[in-house]
Structures are given as C-alpha cells and as structure tokens.
Write a structure and sequence with these properties.
Length: 214
C-alpha cells in the first residue's frame, strides 16, 4: 500500500529550530540559577511552551507563581523569536525541501503537524508555506503531543484516513502522538532516542520517497 499523505513536524524536522528552543530554555535556566542540558531538552521536544516550562522548573526544582510562569514563558519566547527573525530558506535542513517536492510529485498530500505557535512565521521566513496542502499548528489545537490531535486534524483537513498517513518526527512525544493517531512514523534523528519509530533516519538527505511505500 502507498501512503496518501505525509505529515511533517516542523522544529527539528524541516528546520533546525530545535536548537533555538534549546538555547532559549538554557538561557532561562541559567537566569533561574541552574544548568539545563541537551539531554534534559529531549523531554521538551514536541511539548507545548507552557508544558515545557513546567518540565524545566521541575528539573531545576523551582516553584513559581502562575504570573511569573507567564512572564518567564514570554521572555523565553522573545529570545526564541530573535533567533527566528534571522531565518532564511538556507535554514531548511538538508534534503527536506527536495524530499517534500518529490513526495508532492508522487501525488502524495502534505500537511504540517506542529504544536508551535510560531510555525507561521517560520514557514514565511523559510518560504516553505507553498509546499503544504494543510497547516496545523499550535494555534489550532488544544492538546500538545503526545496527544494525537495535531495529526488527526491534519489528516482530516487532507481527507486522508490516518492509516494512509506517514508522520515525520524528531520528538519522542511526536512519535507517540503519531502512533496514537493510528499512523506510521519515520523518526528523524537517533534510533537510541526514537526507539518507538517505525523507521529512523538521520535526516532527509538521501531519503528516497519510494521508501515511504509499505
Ligand atoms: C514544538 C517544539 C517544542 C516547542 C513547541 C511550542 O513542538 O518541538 O520544543 O516547545 O513547539 O513552540 P512555541 O513556538 O509555540 O513556543
Ligand atoms: Mg520537533
């Protein structure tokens, strides 16, 4: 059977913004007086902004009022936005653009499945927007990954049943969300971290769209 739709996560899959998220959270942790490692950061991938802050505070053993939480999340986002502002199409990860174009030539539909509220800005800065048939971002959903909402909504907009969709994800929470949606998942990253993915590749470079037939 051939896939009818590909659903792409954004941060860490199509663009290297996962790095920017990490740098911004690390800066916040430093200001709160603790060190935040890249290993800690794996727990934040695919997780919403406020849930990420809760995990960060738990790691640092810090309690804050709701008011301060909103303040710190806003500060983190402001720093993150300064990184995003500098983005251009050059920041698309190697092979991602070519892969998306090849998939579309095969007649396979494409959707974005990201919980980021900054997704529209990133798609605009990188000129990726025209490559999507549907966009689902953090402004359209009420539950972040590992909840399957983001991917089910994408499949719904494309009118493709979940079992004919393939998700591309770099986050453990995203792989779980894909499976809970009843979809196959290709992990982008390391097999040690993305243990549950159906297939793991280091990136799109060299990934043949023929591989996504199963
Ligand atoms: C993506 C990233 C997460 C980030 C979330 C919310 O899923 O993987 O690290 O926390 O989006 O992003 P936002 O841009 O709305 O803060
Ligand atoms: Mg991601």
């Amino acid at each position: 059977m051939k896939a009818k739709a590909c659903l792409f996560d954004l941060d860490g899959v199509l663009v290297d913004t996962a790095r920017f998220h990490y740098l911004a959270w690390k800066d916040l942790a430093q200001r709160l007086g603790f060190h935040f490692t890249e290993e800690d950061n794996e727990r934040l991938k695919g997780v919403s902004r406020m849930d990420s802050l809760e995990i960060l505070l738990e790691i640092g053993g810090i309690r804050l009022s709701q008011e301060d939480k909103i303040l710190y999340a806003t500060q983190k986002n402001s720093l993150y936005l300064t990184y995003i502002e500098t983005m251009t199409p050059e920041d698309i990860l190697p092979g991602a653009l070519e892969f998306m174009k090849a998939v579309r030539r095969e007649g396979i539909k494409t959707a974005l499945g990201s919980v980021s509220k900054n997704a529209a800005l990133i798609l605009e800065k990188t000129s990726l927007l025209p490559l999507f048939d549907a966009i689902v971002d953090g402004n359209l959903i009420s539950r972040a990954k590992p909840d399957p909402e983001v991917f089910l909504k994408g499949a719904g907009l494309l009118h493709v049943p979940p079992q004919s969709c393939i998700v591309f994800e770099d986050a453990v929470a995203g792989v779980e969300a894909a499976h809970r949606a009843g979809m196959k998942c290709v992990g982008i990253g390391s097999p040690e971290i993305l243990k549950e993915a159906d297939l793991v590749v280091p990136g799109f470079a060299g990934l043949d769209p023929g591989m996504i037939a199963w």
